[in-house]
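A favour, since you know our structure tokens better than I do. Would you make up a two-line entry for one protein for me to read? Write everything out right here, beneath this request.
=====
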Amino acid sequence: MAAPVAHIFCALALLNSGKLKVDDKQAFILGTSFPDIRYLDVIERAETHKKNVTWDDVVNAPSSFEAGMLLHALLDHVRENYVEIHHLYDQLPNNPYRTHVLKFFEDILLYDYVTEWPHIITYFDTIAQEEKKYGIAMPYLRIWHKLLQQYISQHPSAKQIAGFLKHRSAVLTHKESNTIKHYLNKLIGSIKNQFIAFKLGDIMKKLEKNKTIRSRMIYFYENIVDFLTAN
């Protein structure tokens, strides 16, 4: 599974390559960024991530937004296969967050490849009509867009990534109606996020020096158009 910057990078790479044409670039970017709203616990993963998506499904999608959603699912699948084939998880510390660590490390590698972030950020000022069809309350759609805007507004760092995860968990805690559980979850969430921030910083420094992971992932994303269109 890829993180926000990687999904947008891949969407732009396909458009720039000419391999994919869409009627509405903004809707396409919103569509490829929408599926992971599931992390706010407002929708099941199966509803936003279709299984067995092919390149033809993306090309023949009925709308630009749907093409973005399908591309999201296809990238998650292709990337995960690549990571497993090359045993990249085996080179990471054995902890519960290693899948998250790798995908956010990829965002750090990819961020500077995109030169139009100020423009992309404005896309999230708008909530697409197709987002509203999934039965998610409008406040959560707005929160998701705001989180993404804040996250992609500057080059990712361990601190910023931890902040993204912190804000996400704060939304989940806010949804808890039981007062005792609410404050208990808030405390647990605070401790957990501090731990993640510390671990992320430590692991990211090690990843920067890991030539195998770095070169493998750069190769994957530099050739992402070929990887995606081959499926």
The chain has 13 helices and no strands. The chain has one domain: 4-229. The chain has a mean pLDDT of 85.
